[in-house]
Amino acid sequence: MHKKTPLKDLLPPKEKAIAIGIYSGRANQWREEQSLEELATLAITAGADVLQTFLQERPKRDPAYYCGKGKLEEVKAYCDARGIDLVLFDDPLTAAQMRNIEKLLDRKVLDRTQLILDIFAQRARTAEGKLQVELAQVDYFLPRLTGKGIALSRLGGGIGTRGPGETKLEFDRRRLRTRKNRLLQELEHVKQIREMQRSSRTEIPLPAVALVGYTNAGKTTLFNRLTGAKGLVSPILFATLDPMIKSVRTTNRQVVLLSDTVGFIQKLPHELVAAFRATLEEVVQAHLLIHVIDISSPIVDEQIEAVQQTIRDLGVSEKPVLYALNKMDLVENQQAILHSFQNRLGDVIAISAETGEGIQKLMDQIAFRLTAFWERVRLSIPMNQQSLISQLHDQGKIYKKTYVDGCIELDVEVPKKLAERVRQYSLL
Protein backbone atom coordinates (compact mmCIF):
# COMPACT_ATOMS: atom_id res chain seq x y z
CA MET A 1 0.00 0.00 0.00
CA HIS A 2 1.42 3.38 -1.01
CA LYS A 3 1.25 6.18 1.50
CA LYS A 4 -0.22 9.26 -0.10
CA THR A 5 0.69 12.80 0.90
CA PRO A 6 -2.49 14.65 1.93
CA LEU A 7 -3.41 17.43 -0.45
CA LYS A 8 -3.72 19.91 2.40
CA ASP A 9 -0.04 19.34 3.20
CA LEU A 10 0.90 20.15 -0.40
CA LEU A 11 -1.18 23.30 -0.68
CA PRO A 12 -1.67 25.28 2.55
CA PRO A 13 -5.29 26.48 2.65
CA LYS A 14 -5.87 30.16 2.03
CA GLU A 15 -9.61 30.43 2.55
CA LYS A 16 -12.14 28.77 4.84
CA ALA A 17 -14.97 27.22 2.87
CA ILE A 18 -18.06 25.06 3.09
CA ALA A 19 -19.67 22.93 0.36
CA ILE A 20 -23.37 22.51 -0.37
CA GLY A 21 -25.16 19.90 -2.48
CA ILE A 22 -28.63 18.47 -2.99
CA TYR A 23 -29.93 15.05 -4.01
CA SER A 24 -33.31 13.61 -4.96
CA GLY A 25 -34.17 10.26 -3.42
CA ARG A 26 -32.23 8.19 -0.92
CA ALA A 27 -30.69 6.10 -3.69
CA ASN A 28 -28.73 9.17 -4.85
CA GLN A 29 -27.53 10.27 -1.42
CA TRP A 30 -24.24 8.32 -1.45
CA ARG A 31 -23.44 9.53 -4.96
CA GLU A 32 -23.91 13.17 -3.96
CA GLU A 33 -21.84 12.62 -0.81
CA GLN A 34 -18.99 11.39 -3.03
CA SER A 35 -19.50 14.35 -5.36
CA LEU A 36 -19.24 16.76 -2.42
CA GLU A 37 -16.06 15.00 -1.31
CA GLU A 38 -14.65 15.58 -4.78
CA LEU A 39 -15.73 19.22 -4.62
CA ALA A 40 -13.80 19.54 -1.35
CA THR A 41 -10.71 18.08 -3.08
CA LEU A 42 -11.13 20.61 -5.88
CA ALA A 43 -11.29 23.34 -3.24
CA ILE A 44 -8.03 22.16 -1.68
CA THR A 45 -6.45 22.16 -5.13
CA ALA A 46 -7.61 25.76 -5.58
CA GLY A 47 -6.29 26.79 -2.16
CA ALA A 48 -9.19 26.49 0.29
CA ASP A 49 -10.06 24.24 3.22
CA VAL A 50 -13.62 22.89 3.32
CA LEU A 51 -14.59 22.81 7.01
CA GLN A 52 -18.10 21.46 6.56
CA THR A 53 -20.48 20.05 3.97
CA PHE A 54 -24.23 20.57 3.87
CA LEU A 55 -26.46 18.09 2.05
CA GLN A 56 -30.18 18.45 1.52
CA GLU A 57 -32.73 16.08 -0.01
CA ARG A 58 -34.97 17.88 -2.48
CA PRO A 59 -37.02 16.65 -5.44
CA LYS A 60 -35.54 19.46 -7.55
CA ARG A 61 -33.44 22.61 -7.21
CA ASP A 62 -35.10 25.68 -5.75
CA PRO A 63 -35.27 28.20 -8.63
CA ALA A 64 -34.44 31.10 -6.30
CA TYR A 65 -32.04 29.62 -3.72
CA TYR A 66 -30.89 26.24 -5.14
CA CYS A 67 -31.31 24.40 -1.82
CA GLY A 68 -34.07 26.38 -0.19
CA LYS A 69 -34.01 29.56 1.84
CA GLY A 70 -34.28 27.77 5.21
CA LYS A 71 -31.19 25.69 4.57
CA LEU A 72 -29.28 28.81 3.51
CA GLU A 73 -30.21 30.58 6.74
CA GLU A 74 -28.75 27.59 8.62
CA VAL A 75 -25.63 27.85 6.43
CA LYS A 76 -25.32 31.60 7.13
CA ALA A 77 -25.41 31.02 10.90
CA TYR A 78 -22.62 28.45 10.58
CA CYS A 79 -20.56 30.75 8.35
CA ASP A 80 -20.94 33.68 10.73
CA ALA A 81 -19.90 31.53 13.70
CA ARG A 82 -16.86 29.96 12.00
CA GLY A 83 -15.64 32.91 9.92
CA ILE A 84 -16.25 31.20 6.58
CA ASP A 85 -14.96 33.13 3.55
CA LEU A 86 -16.31 31.02 0.70
CA VAL A 87 -19.46 28.99 0.00
CA LEU A 88 -19.23 26.36 -2.74
CA PHE A 89 -22.16 24.78 -4.58
CA ASP A 90 -21.85 21.42 -6.30
CA ASP A 91 -23.92 22.40 -9.35
CA PRO A 92 -24.02 25.37 -11.72
CA LEU A 93 -26.00 28.31 -10.36
CA THR A 94 -28.21 30.57 -12.43
CA ALA A 95 -27.78 34.33 -12.37
CA ALA A 96 -30.86 34.69 -10.14
CA GLN A 97 -29.70 32.00 -7.72
CA MET A 98 -26.24 33.58 -7.49
CA ARG A 99 -27.69 37.01 -6.79
CA ASN A 100 -30.15 35.76 -4.14
CA ILE A 101 -27.63 33.51 -2.38
CA GLU A 102 -24.95 36.20 -2.22
CA LYS A 103 -27.43 38.69 -0.82
CA LEU A 104 -28.56 36.27 1.88
CA LEU A 105 -25.14 34.88 2.85
CA ASP A 106 -23.19 38.15 2.46
CA ARG A 107 -20.01 36.36 1.36
CA LYS A 108 -18.33 34.99 -1.75
CA VAL A 109 -20.23 32.24 -3.55
CA LEU A 110 -18.88 29.94 -6.27
CA ASP A 111 -20.40 26.99 -8.07
CA ARG A 112 -18.50 23.91 -9.29
CA THR A 113 -17.95 25.39 -12.74
CA GLN A 114 -16.33 28.56 -11.38
CA LEU A 115 -14.11 26.50 -9.08
CA ILE A 116 -12.85 24.34 -11.95
CA LEU A 117 -12.30 27.43 -14.09
CA ASP A 118 -10.25 28.95 -11.27
CA ILE A 119 -8.04 25.83 -11.04
CA PHE A 120 -7.55 25.90 -14.79
CA ALA A 121 -6.60 29.59 -14.57
CA GLN A 122 -3.95 28.68 -11.99
CA ARG A 123 -2.55 25.74 -13.92
CA ALA A 124 -2.55 26.96 -17.55
CA ARG A 125 1.05 27.40 -18.68
CA THR A 126 0.97 27.77 -22.46
CA ALA A 127 -0.40 30.78 -24.33
CA GLU A 128 -3.08 28.56 -25.83
CA GLY A 129 -4.09 27.19 -22.44
CA LYS A 130 -4.46 30.69 -21.01
CA LEU A 131 -6.56 31.81 -23.97
CA GLN A 132 -8.81 28.78 -23.59
CA VAL A 133 -9.31 29.40 -19.88
CA GLU A 134 -10.22 33.03 -20.50
CA LEU A 135 -12.66 32.09 -23.26
CA ALA A 136 -14.34 29.59 -20.93
CA GLN A 137 -14.59 32.28 -18.25
CA VAL A 138 -16.14 34.75 -20.67
CA ASP A 139 -18.64 32.12 -21.87
CA TYR A 140 -19.55 31.43 -18.25
CA PHE A 141 -19.97 35.04 -17.15
CA LEU A 142 -21.83 36.45 -20.17
CA PRO A 143 -25.26 35.04 -19.23
CA ARG A 144 -24.65 35.60 -15.49
CA LEU A 145 -23.60 39.23 -15.27
CA THR A 146 -26.66 40.20 -13.26
CA GLY A 147 -25.88 37.47 -10.74
CA LYS A 148 -22.32 38.61 -10.02
CA GLY A 149 -22.51 40.79 -6.99
CA ILE A 150 -20.25 40.17 -4.03
CA ALA A 151 -17.90 37.79 -5.87
CA LEU A 152 -16.87 40.45 -8.37
CA SER A 153 -16.76 43.21 -5.80
CA ARG A 154 -14.09 41.31 -3.89
CA LEU A 155 -11.49 40.97 -6.59
CA GLY A 156 -8.61 41.63 -4.21
CA GLY A 157 -7.63 37.96 -4.42
CA GLY A 158 -8.62 34.43 -3.65
CA ILE A 159 -10.46 31.61 -5.34
CA GLY A 160 -12.69 32.59 -8.22
CA THR A 161 -10.79 35.80 -8.94
CA ARG A 162 -7.90 34.43 -10.98
CA GLY A 163 -7.32 34.40 -14.70
CA PRO A 164 -7.14 37.14 -17.29
CA GLY A 165 -10.92 37.00 -17.68
CA GLU A 166 -11.55 38.29 -14.14
CA THR A 167 -9.07 41.11 -13.63
CA LYS A 168 -11.45 44.13 -13.87
CA LEU A 169 -14.62 45.18 -12.14
CA GLU A 170 -16.19 46.86 -15.18
CA PHE A 171 -17.65 43.70 -16.67
CA ASP A 172 -20.45 44.42 -19.11
CA ARG A 173 -21.90 42.49 -22.01
CA ARG A 174 -20.45 44.71 -24.71
CA ARG A 175 -16.92 44.46 -23.38
CA LEU A 176 -17.21 40.73 -22.81
CA ARG A 177 -18.51 40.11 -26.30
CA THR A 178 -15.70 42.23 -27.75
CA ARG A 179 -13.19 40.31 -25.68
CA LYS A 180 -14.74 37.01 -26.74
CA ASN A 181 -14.36 37.91 -30.41
CA ARG A 182 -10.70 38.77 -29.86
CA LEU A 183 -10.12 35.52 -28.01
CA LEU A 184 -11.72 33.53 -30.80
CA GLN A 185 -9.48 35.25 -33.34
CA GLU A 186 -6.36 34.58 -31.27
CA LEU A 187 -7.35 30.96 -30.71
CA GLU A 188 -8.01 30.53 -34.42
CA HIS A 189 -4.49 31.76 -35.09
CA VAL A 190 -3.13 29.30 -32.51
CA LYS A 191 -5.25 26.55 -34.05
CA GLN A 192 -3.74 27.23 -37.48
CA ILE A 193 -0.25 26.97 -36.00
CA ARG A 194 -1.19 23.70 -34.27
CA GLU A 195 -2.61 22.33 -37.52
CA MET A 196 0.65 23.17 -39.28
CA GLN A 197 2.57 21.39 -36.53
CA ARG A 198 0.21 18.44 -36.73
CA SER A 199 0.47 18.26 -40.53
CA SER A 200 4.26 18.17 -40.18
CA ARG A 201 3.80 15.28 -37.77
CA THR A 202 1.54 13.44 -40.20
CA GLU A 203 4.31 13.67 -42.77
CA ILE A 204 6.05 11.36 -40.31
CA PRO A 205 3.23 8.80 -40.54
CA LEU A 206 3.29 7.37 -37.04
CA PRO A 207 0.22 6.05 -35.22
CA ALA A 208 -1.04 8.28 -32.39
CA VAL A 209 -2.13 6.92 -29.01
CA ALA A 210 -3.84 9.20 -26.47
CA LEU A 211 -4.12 8.58 -22.74
CA VAL A 212 -7.54 9.64 -21.45
CA GLY A 213 -9.11 9.23 -18.06
CA TYR A 214 -10.49 10.80 -14.93
CA THR A 215 -8.36 13.43 -13.27
CA ASN A 216 -5.80 11.86 -10.90
CA ALA A 217 -6.29 8.39 -12.44
CA GLY A 218 -2.54 8.07 -13.00
CA LYS A 219 -2.23 9.05 -16.67
CA THR A 220 0.94 11.11 -16.19
CA THR A 221 2.56 8.38 -14.07
CA LEU A 222 1.79 5.93 -16.89
CA PHE A 223 3.04 8.40 -19.52
CA ASN A 224 6.30 8.77 -17.60
CA ARG A 225 6.59 5.00 -17.22
CA LEU A 226 6.11 4.36 -20.95
CA THR A 227 8.21 7.23 -22.32
CA GLY A 228 10.81 7.98 -19.65
CA ALA A 229 9.46 11.54 -19.40
CA LYS A 230 9.36 13.49 -16.16
CA GLY A 231 5.90 15.02 -16.29
CA LEU A 232 4.50 16.40 -13.02
CA VAL A 233 2.95 13.60 -10.94
CA SER A 234 0.75 14.92 -8.15
CA PRO A 235 -2.45 14.06 -6.25
CA ILE A 236 -3.58 17.59 -7.07
CA LEU A 237 -6.53 17.49 -9.48
CA PHE A 238 -5.78 18.72 -13.01
CA ALA A 239 -2.01 18.50 -12.44
CA THR A 240 -1.68 18.03 -16.21
CA LEU A 241 -3.42 20.75 -18.22
CA ASP A 242 -1.32 21.24 -21.34
CA PRO A 243 -0.85 18.04 -23.38
CA MET A 244 2.50 16.28 -23.64
CA ILE A 245 3.54 14.18 -26.67
CA LYS A 246 6.49 11.80 -26.94
CA SER A 247 7.44 8.90 -29.18
CA VAL A 248 7.76 5.44 -27.70
CA ARG A 249 8.63 2.02 -29.12
CA THR A 250 6.18 -0.82 -28.58
CA THR A 251 7.29 -4.34 -27.75
CA ASN A 252 7.73 -5.21 -31.44
CA ARG A 253 10.00 -2.15 -31.89
CA GLN A 254 7.41 -0.11 -33.75
CA VAL A 255 7.26 3.62 -32.95
CA VAL A 256 4.06 5.36 -31.83
CA LEU A 257 3.30 8.91 -30.65
CA LEU A 258 1.89 8.90 -27.12
CA SER A 259 0.04 11.92 -25.70
CA ASP A 260 -0.93 12.72 -22.11
CA THR A 261 -4.06 14.89 -21.90
CA VAL A 262 -6.02 16.84 -19.31
CA GLY A 263 -8.07 14.71 -16.93
CA PHE A 264 -11.84 14.60 -17.16
CA ILE A 265 -14.20 15.01 -14.23
CA GLN A 266 -17.86 14.57 -13.28
CA LYS A 267 -20.07 17.51 -14.14
CA LEU A 268 -17.30 18.85 -16.42
CA PRO A 269 -18.52 22.30 -17.49
CA HIS A 270 -19.55 22.35 -21.14
CA GLU A 271 -17.72 25.68 -21.43
CA LEU A 272 -14.48 23.81 -20.79
CA VAL A 273 -15.22 20.98 -23.21
CA ALA A 274 -15.89 23.56 -25.92
CA ALA A 275 -13.02 25.91 -25.08
CA PHE A 276 -10.47 23.14 -24.67
CA ARG A 277 -11.41 21.33 -27.83
CA ALA A 278 -8.17 22.48 -29.47
CA THR A 279 -6.12 20.99 -26.64
CA LEU A 280 -8.19 17.81 -26.83
CA GLU A 281 -7.48 17.54 -30.56
CA GLU A 282 -4.83 15.00 -29.59
CA VAL A 283 -7.73 12.78 -28.50
CA VAL A 284 -9.71 13.54 -31.67
CA GLN A 285 -6.73 12.74 -33.91
CA ALA A 286 -5.59 9.60 -32.08
CA HIS A 287 -5.75 6.17 -33.71
CA LEU A 288 -6.16 4.48 -30.31
CA LEU A 289 -7.36 5.68 -26.91
CA ILE A 290 -6.08 4.21 -23.67
CA HIS A 291 -8.68 4.85 -20.98
CA VAL A 292 -6.76 4.88 -17.69
CA ILE A 293 -9.03 3.89 -14.80
CA ASP A 294 -8.27 4.33 -11.09
CA ILE A 295 -9.54 0.95 -9.97
CA SER A 296 -9.03 1.90 -6.29
CA SER A 297 -11.51 4.79 -6.43
CA PRO A 298 -14.76 4.29 -4.48
CA ILE A 299 -16.62 5.99 -7.34
CA VAL A 300 -14.89 4.19 -10.18
CA ASP A 301 -18.17 3.54 -12.03
CA GLU A 302 -19.12 7.21 -11.99
CA GLN A 303 -15.62 8.17 -13.13
CA ILE A 304 -15.77 5.75 -16.06
CA GLU A 305 -19.12 7.17 -17.13
CA ALA A 306 -17.82 10.76 -16.84
CA VAL A 307 -14.90 9.95 -19.16
CA GLN A 308 -17.11 8.09 -21.62
CA GLN A 309 -19.55 11.02 -21.68
CA THR A 310 -16.74 13.47 -22.45
CA ILE A 311 -15.50 11.17 -25.22
CA ARG A 312 -19.03 11.22 -26.65
CA ASP A 313 -19.12 15.02 -26.36
CA LEU A 314 -15.91 15.18 -28.39
CA GLY A 315 -17.48 13.00 -31.08
CA VAL A 316 -14.86 10.24 -30.84
CA SER A 317 -16.89 7.44 -29.26
CA GLU A 318 -16.26 5.24 -32.32
CA LYS A 319 -12.49 5.19 -31.78
CA PRO A 320 -10.93 1.94 -30.52
CA VAL A 321 -10.37 2.01 -26.76
CA LEU A 322 -8.07 -0.08 -24.59
CA TYR A 323 -8.94 0.01 -20.88
CA ALA A 324 -6.03 0.13 -18.41
CA LEU A 325 -7.15 -0.73 -14.88
CA ASN A 326 -4.55 1.28 -12.96
CA LYS A 327 -3.53 1.13 -9.27
CA MET A 328 -4.21 -2.62 -9.07
CA ASP A 329 -1.52 -2.77 -6.36
CA LEU A 330 -3.91 -0.87 -4.08
CA VAL A 331 -6.84 -3.32 -4.23
CA GLU A 332 -7.60 -6.86 -3.07
CA ASN A 333 -9.39 -9.59 -5.06
CA GLN A 334 -7.58 -8.50 -8.20
CA GLN A 335 -8.71 -11.43 -10.35
CA ALA A 336 -12.37 -10.96 -9.44
CA ILE A 337 -12.14 -7.25 -10.24
CA LEU A 338 -10.39 -7.96 -13.54
CA HIS A 339 -13.04 -10.48 -14.62
CA SER A 340 -15.85 -8.13 -13.62
CA PHE A 341 -14.50 -5.30 -15.76
CA GLN A 342 -13.69 -7.65 -18.64
CA ASN A 343 -17.37 -8.61 -18.73
CA ARG A 344 -18.42 -4.96 -18.69
CA LEU A 345 -15.82 -3.25 -20.88
CA GLY A 346 -14.20 -5.92 -23.03
CA ASP A 347 -10.45 -5.46 -23.54
CA VAL A 348 -8.95 -4.53 -20.17
CA ILE A 349 -5.39 -4.74 -18.87
CA ALA A 350 -4.58 -4.76 -15.15
CA ILE A 351 -1.63 -2.44 -14.47
CA SER A 352 0.14 -0.38 -11.87
CA ALA A 353 1.87 2.61 -13.41
CA GLU A 354 3.61 3.10 -10.07
CA THR A 355 5.17 -0.39 -9.77
CA GLY A 356 5.31 -1.39 -13.45
CA GLU A 357 2.91 -4.31 -13.06
CA GLY A 358 1.17 -5.18 -16.35
CA ILE A 359 3.07 -2.62 -18.42
CA GLN A 360 4.51 -5.28 -20.73
CA LYS A 361 1.01 -6.63 -21.44
CA LEU A 362 -0.21 -3.11 -22.12
CA MET A 363 2.57 -2.49 -24.64
CA ASP A 364 1.82 -5.84 -26.30
CA GLN A 365 -1.82 -4.84 -26.67
CA ILE A 366 -0.95 -1.43 -28.09
CA ALA A 367 1.22 -3.11 -30.73
CA PHE A 368 -1.54 -5.65 -31.49
CA ARG A 369 -4.23 -2.97 -31.81
CA LEU A 370 -2.10 -1.03 -34.29
CA THR A 371 -1.17 -4.03 -36.46
CA ALA A 372 -3.24 -2.78 -39.39
CA PHE A 373 -1.26 0.47 -39.38
CA TRP A 374 1.92 -1.30 -40.52
CA GLU A 375 3.12 -3.03 -43.70
CA ARG A 376 6.14 -5.26 -44.26
CA VAL A 377 8.12 -4.45 -47.42
CA ARG A 378 11.42 -5.39 -49.08
CA LEU A 379 13.35 -2.42 -50.42
CA SER A 380 16.57 -1.58 -52.24
CA ILE A 381 17.63 1.97 -51.31
CA PRO A 382 20.62 3.74 -52.93
CA MET A 383 23.28 4.51 -50.33
CA ASN A 384 23.11 8.24 -51.19
CA GLN A 385 19.53 8.34 -49.78
CA GLN A 386 20.80 8.53 -46.20
CA SER A 387 17.89 10.59 -44.82
CA LEU A 388 15.39 8.03 -46.13
CA ILE A 389 17.44 5.14 -44.76
CA SER A 390 17.58 6.87 -41.37
CA GLN A 391 13.80 7.42 -41.45
CA LEU A 392 13.21 3.72 -42.14
CA HIS A 393 15.43 2.82 -39.21
CA ASP A 394 13.77 5.35 -36.90
CA GLN A 395 10.18 4.50 -37.76
CA GLY A 396 10.34 0.86 -38.81
CA LYS A 397 11.29 -2.53 -37.53
CA ILE A 398 14.25 -3.95 -39.47
CA TYR A 399 14.13 -7.73 -39.99
CA LYS A 400 17.08 -8.03 -42.36
CA LYS A 401 19.68 -5.68 -43.86
CA THR A 402 22.24 -6.40 -46.60
CA TYR A 403 24.50 -4.27 -48.82
CA VAL A 404 24.39 -4.97 -52.59
CA ASP A 405 25.99 -2.92 -55.42
CA GLY A 406 25.88 0.51 -53.77
CA CYS A 407 22.42 -0.09 -52.31
CA ILE A 408 21.10 -1.24 -48.98
CA GLU A 409 18.43 -3.94 -49.12
CA LEU A 410 15.99 -3.87 -46.24
CA ASP A 411 13.31 -6.25 -45.06
CA VAL A 412 11.39 -3.78 -42.92
CA GLU A 413 7.97 -3.20 -41.34
CA VAL A 414 6.90 0.44 -41.57
CA PRO A 415 3.73 2.56 -41.32
CA LYS A 416 1.57 2.08 -44.41
CA LYS A 417 1.84 5.76 -45.40
CA LEU A 418 5.60 5.47 -45.40
CA ALA A 419 5.40 2.18 -47.32
CA GLU A 420 3.48 4.00 -50.07
CA ARG A 421 6.14 6.73 -50.24
CA VAL A 422 8.99 4.23 -50.72
CA ARG A 423 7.13 1.92 -53.11
CA GLN A 424 9.44 2.95 -55.96
CA TYR A 425 12.32 1.17 -54.18
CA SER A 426 10.41 -2.09 -53.81
CA LEU A 427 12.10 -5.40 -54.55
CA LEU A 428 9.77 -7.63 -56.55
Could you characterize the architecture of this molecule?
- The chain is of the alpha/beta class and 428 residues long.
- It has three domains: 7-123, Rossmann fold, CATH 3.40.50.11060; 206-369, 3-Layer(aba) Sandwich (Rossmann fold); 373-425, Alpha-Beta Plaits.
- The protein is built from 16 helices and 13 strands.
- Strands 6-7-5-8-9-10 form a six-stranded mixed β-sheet, with helices on both faces. A four-stranded parallel β-sheet has the order 2-1-3-4, with helices on both faces. It has a three-stranded antiparallel β-sheet with strand order 11-13-12.
- Helix 5 (112-123) runs antiparallel to helix 6 (127-141).
- The longest helix has 31 residues, at 173-203.
- It is elongated and about 90 Å long.
- The termini are far apart.
Describe the protein's topology.
Layout: H1 7-10, E1 15-23, H2 29-46, E2 48-57, H3 69-82, E3 86-89, H4 95-105, E4 108-111, H5 112-123, H6 127-141, H7 150-153, H8 173-203, E5 208-213, H9 219-227, E6 244-249, E7 255-260, H10 270-275, H11 281-285, E8 288-294, H12 300-313, E9 321-326, H13 334-345, E10 348-350, H14 359-369, E11 374-382, H15 386-395, E12 397-404, E13 407-415, H16 416-421
Parallel strand pairs: 1-2, 1-3, 3-4, 5-7, 5-8, 8-9, 9-10
Antiparallel strand pairs: 6-7, 11-13, 12-13
Features:
13 strands; 4-stranded parallel β-sheet; alpha/beta; Rossmann fold; 428 residues; Alpha-Beta Plaits; 3 domains
Can you tell me the residue ranges where pLDDT is under 50 for at least 5 consecutive residues? 147-156, 165-169
Overall radius of gyration: 25 Å
Helix content: 40-55%
Within CATH, the superfamily of the largest domain carries the name P-loop containing nucleotide triphosphate hydrolases
CATH class of the largest domain: Alpha Beta
**CATH architecture of the largest domain, please?**
3-Layer(aba) Sandwich
Strand content: 15-25%
The number of helices is 16
End-to-end separation: 58 Å
Main sheet attributes: strand count, strand direction, barrel closure:
6 strands, mixed
N-to-C order of helices and strands: HEHEHEHEHHHHEHEEHHEHEHEHEHEEH
- Structural class by sheet pairing and helices: alpha/beta
Strand sequence of the main sheet, in spatial order? 6-7-5-8-9-10
Number of strands: 13
Mean pLDDT: 83
By oligomeric state, this entry counts as single chain
Number of self-contained structural domains: 3
